[in-house]
């Protein structure tokens, strides 16, 4: 009989994983410790914007019209333990307040709350991004707490999904990585990930430490790639080069590749920034900090982008921010997401506001989350409303909707036709032809 699946934690990762498992035909029980979330998910709704996820949930959540009924949500640990053969732990590991290290308290609490109820053979599978060495520690903790002892085992199976593409990345992963101590656990995970999910996806079997490191090193590599091209943008600005052309040209080399070479105001979100910091902190604990000192540079290049954007804005306003009207297009850390965690766009908007500018933000999905963090900024219901009377317009999150804006029409609304493209995503020719001064990071000013 197919194993029954539970998913602990229902954020981006957990909610998507639970729905995807139900889509594959498994019976799934999701758990969260927040009653409002459980209630919302039970109605087939999600507390965030993620394309396609609500539809996928509604196809499977029990009790909804026309659903398969394969997916339910609960607050009850005992129910989860009794139901599941395979328990996926998908809770988050945020950065600790005031420290680089990641906060493992949610993972620890989840594993312990579950373990005390595990009285029959089962596999607990960690998916959260954790410091290397966590799986060893958690396996020992489960063996110690579970009434089933070592029959309640652990495996590590990092997740590589991107926000905005969570459903597709989960159903069609680039690779599946499993860290196991026992071949029987590999067999269980092969069954869980049997086609269509694993069709064409390499299945990499390894030890705990390597599985944990695959995730942190993949994210560090991606962050490094972005900071590399942003460093080139700094040099291009100093030398009069064009970083967009440069990225295109180096990207033709397959060994470099075209992806993740978009220069701009840098990376943000709930993963890359905190993952590189946690990785440095963990390497320090292991006495390997020298190996990762370059990540400090990756981080500081990235943070410098935000300050640079603020300086460019000041320049565009003749050195004075006080009382000037700045329209900011974008608040989420990337398009197709309402997530504003460590968002470069919101950070820039906030800095400008704190320096006296009158900032009005418009994001197609992120306004509400942004308002919670920065209630003192102005928020508009559309791009046209945001730019009304603006002395300068900043394009900070590259939503498709912004690429479709008509510069001529928008030009009628603004005080001055001045746009700074923080994402190198708009068409300079179209904006300049419509009478705008267009400036982008790492590109020549005309
Ligand atoms: C990332 C990883 O891609 C994913 O594999 C992992 O599971 C979680 O962390 P995510 O945080 O959703 O995913 O976003 P991603 O698409 O990687 O973008 C991260 C940030 O980098 C965004 O702020 C984005 O705007 C920025 N970015 C990305 C650039 O500035 N330039 C680029 O070329 C690419």
From TrEMBL:
Active site: 271
E.C. no: 1.1.1.22
Residues covered by the UDP-glucose/GDP-mannose dehydrogenase C-terminal domain: 327-428
Broad EC category: oxidoreductase
Keyword Oxidoreductase carried by entry: yes
A single BP term in Gene Ontology: polysaccharide biosynthetic process
Record's keyword terms, sorted: NAD, Oxidoreductase
Residues involved in NAD(+) binding: 32, 37, 93, 129, 163, 274, 341
InterPro entries (UniProt xref): 6-PGluconate_DH-like_C_sf, NAD(P)-bd_dom_sf, UDP-Glc/GDP-Man, UDP-Glc/GDP-Man_DH_C, UDP-Glc/GDP-Man_DH_C_sf, UDP-Glc/GDP-Man_DH_dimer, UDP-Glc/GDP-Man_DH_N, UDPglc_DH_bac
Binding positions for substrate per the UniProt entry: 160-163, 215, 260-264, 268, 334
GO molecular function terms attached to this record: NAD binding; UDP-glucose 6-dehydrogenase activity
Pathway connected to this protein: Nucleotide-sugar biosynthesis; UDP-alpha-D-glucuronate biosynthesis; UDP-alpha-D-glucuronate from UDP-alpha-D-glucose: step 1/1
A Pfam family of this chain: UDPG_MGDP_dh
Keyword NAD part of the UniProt annotation: yes
Catalytic activity: UDP-alpha-D-glucose + 2 NAD(+) + H2O = UDP-alpha-D-glucuronate + 2 NADH + 3 H(+)
Family: Belongs to the UDP-glucose/GDP-mannose dehydrogenase family.
Name listed for the protein in its UniProt record: UDP-glucose 6-dehydrogenase
Organism: Streptomyces lonarensis
